[in-house]
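User: Predict the structure for this protein chain, please.
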Amino acid sequence: MIRPHILLVEDEPNIARGIVFNLEEEGYRVTHAETGEAALLHLTHETFALAILDLMLPGIGGLEVCRAIRRQDLRLPVLILTARGEEKDRIAGLAAGADDYLTKPFSLDEFLLRIKGMLRRSEWYRPEGAGGRFHFGGNEVDLKGKRAVTARGVVQLTDLEVRMLRLFLTRDNEAISRRELLESVWGISPDSETRTLDNFIVRLRKYFEPDPAAPIHFLTERGRGYRFVRDPAKPQSAAGAPVPNE
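Assistant: Here is the predicted structure, written as C-alpha cells:
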C-alpha cells in the first residue's frame, strides 16, 4: 500500500517533531522543511499528497509558499497550521490558496481528522497522473522517475523539463503566461530577455508532438505565453481556441 506523502513546513523543532511522530503513526510518510526556501526545493523535486504550512517562517513566509504551490498545482491540498488566529489572517491564508486553516494550539484528533478528510476529498477530483504519471497523445510521462516514453523512444528528462511539464500537465488547456513560466520554472525575473523558454518549448515539441512543426499539444498563445492541450479532440471554447503557432 502506498503511504500518502505529506510535506510539513514548520520551523519550531518541538512542534515539528510531535506532528511528524503522529502523522507517521497514522501511516503517512512525512518530509519536514524548516524554511520556505527548503519547502519550495522539496516541491520542485518531489510529489506530495498534501502540504501543511506554518505562516511565520524564516525567509520566505508560508503565504508565499502557498501561492507558489498554487502556481504549480491547483489540486494539491494545503492546510495552514499557525498561531495566527485573527480573521484577517485566516482570510489571507484562504485567499492565497489554502484549503483549510487550523490555529495553534489545536486538538490532535481534530488535526488528524482534517488531514484524513482533505486527502479523501482530493482523491475525488485528482486526475490520472496526479501521482506523477501522465498519458497524452500516445506519450507516457513519469515525473517522479524523470523519464518519458514517446513515439521516438525513451527520453530522460532534466529537472527543468520535469518542472515545466508538471506545470503544464496539471493545468490542462489553460493559457500560462511567459511571466508565470519564467518565475515558476526558472525563478528568474519575468522581465528578463531570454529565449530559454522558447527553446524549451521547441524541445518539448520534439519529444512529444507527432509533428513538431504543427504542434497539437504545446500551443503558442501569441502575446501571452503557452497552452498545453492534453486531448486536442475535445472541443475548446472560443476563449481557449488555439492560435497559429511559431
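Confidence is low (pLDDT under 50) at residues 124-130, 237-246.
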